[in-house]
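Quick one:
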Amino acid sequence: MSFVNLVVTSVAGSATGSTIITVEPILTGGNSYKYKIAANPTIPAAGQKCVSGYTVWDGISEIVAESGKKIVIAEVGADNTCISAGMTTIVSAD
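Output:
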């Protein structure tokens, strides 16, 4: 399996300080998402473990995050190794 760059978008969420994240292509069966928010995060490499600093995400729930920061979404396998990843700048509700 080759590394895929995810297209990640952020729009204002329904509550103050929240964002709605969308990811394409969609999650591959048996895998899950993790995310990391920072001023300047790095995208993990294929096969890199995504454990420290990452939060599990269901791919649907709004995320509480500050506008202007960046979010990295990583698709990981059962062993937390990165399969695909992408990044965008956060837009959260005022």
